[in-house]
Write a structure and sequence with these properties.
Structural class: alpha/beta
CATH topology of the largest domain: Rossmann fold
CATH superfamily of the largest domain: NAD(P)-binding Rossmann-like Domain
Number of helices: 12
Radius of gyration: 22 Å
Helix content: 40-55%
Distance between the termini: 35 Å
Strand content: 5-15%
CATH architecture of the largest domain: 3-Layer(aba) Sandwich
Largest sheet: 6 strands, parallel
Shape: elongated
Number of strands: 9
Strand order of the largest sheet: 3-2-1-4-5-6
Number of domains: 2
CATH class of the largest domain: Alpha Beta
């Protein structure tokens, strides 16, 4: 990897007595979208001394200023400046990535590596191929399966990825050393890193991430239409809190995810619709034993799951 714009900054981690510290894994990192994912990526790498200078790009000047105050980034910059960083993390809603990639292309440094944190992968890969053309080999798609209903720089924290899954969906064009560099960055954040195809990623995540968010939003939308919604919610307890928490996540982000993976999500939705009808029939016919058996099957799977 070539030297960065300002050379290799001093590593922020501790020094061993009498020895020069090793240079960081990423001398200059540019984060496009300094919110929960992008900010946490920078914070985690900074905490372990594996990043030098961190540049931030975003639409909201106040959010960028706050990211500087929180030391998530060292300074804000333009997209053209960010394009010359050693590594660029695209941490924006997936719908924004095609235009960002097109704008970055003319300014990319000779050895700049791009990656992303998008929750869908087939659409991002397609966008990268179209926008980057022959330069697509430098883009290593990824998805940290970690998040929160919170957003913005204030939500970022260095331990967000600790022990969590990060999925890479490498392209056939990616040189192995670039994939390894992105892998090493996520390992430095404390994540478990796996690889799969973009198609498999979107299939599995439709089941365990995208549809649950849609169902949570749908339920809260249903409740919001009740004339006495606020009164009902006075009596909501921990079950309501746990089930509905993810419906407080970014509508812009989830709009893009749901539309990008709509075919697979709708397939999952059809299957859940059949389960709801199954429950409805058991309630209608008062088949207590069959209802309990179905509840027990679900409870067993949920209890066996460990994050």
């Amino acid at each position: 990897m070539s030297k960065s714009m300002s050379g290799r900054p001093t590593q922020s981690g501790s020094r061993r007595s009498g020895r020069q510290s090793e240079p960081p894994l990423i001398p200059v990192l540019a984060v496009v979208g300094v919110g929960l994912i992008g900010g946490s990526f920078a914070a985690a790498l900074r905490q372990v001394g594996q990043v030098g200078q961190v540049l931030g790009v975003g639409r909201d000047a106040a959010a960028l200023a706050r990211a500087c105050e929180l030391r998530l980034i060292d300074r804000s910059c333009t997209l053209a400046e960010a394009a010359r960083a050693d590594v660029i993390m695209l941490a924006t809603p997936v719908g924004a990535m095609p235009e960002l990639l097109r704008e970055l292309l003319p300014h990319l440094g000779a050895d700049t590596v791009l990656t992303d944190g998008g929750s869908t992968k087939q659409d991002v890969v397609d966008a990268a191929r179209e926008a980057l053309g022959d330069e697509v080999a430098r883009f290593v798609p990824g998805h940290p399966v970690a998040g929160s209903e919170l957003s913005g720089p204030e939500a970022a924290r260095p331990d967000l990825f600790l022990g969590r899954q990060v999925v890479l969906t490498p392209l056939a064009e990616n040189p192995p050393e670039l994939v390894q560099r992105v892998r090493q960055a996520w390992l430095a954040c404390g994540a478990h890193v796996t690889e799969m195809s973009a198609e498999q990623h979107d299939d599995w995540l439709a089941s365990v991430s995208h549809l649950p968010h849609l169902l949570a939003y749908a339920y809260i939308a249903h409740l919001a239409e009740a004339p006495d919604a606020s009164e009902r919610m006075r009596y909501a307890g921990s079950g309501f809190r746990d089930f509905s928490r993810i419906a407080a996540a970014s509508p812009e982000m989830w709009r893009d995810i749901l539309l990008a993976n709509r075919t697979l999500i709708r397939r999952e939705l059809d299957q859940v619709r059949e389960q709801l009808l199954r429950f409805d029939r058991l309630l209608e016919t008062e088949k207590a034993e069959e209802l309990e058996a179905l509840l027990a099957q679900a409870a067993e799977l949920r209890r066996s799951w460990r994050l």
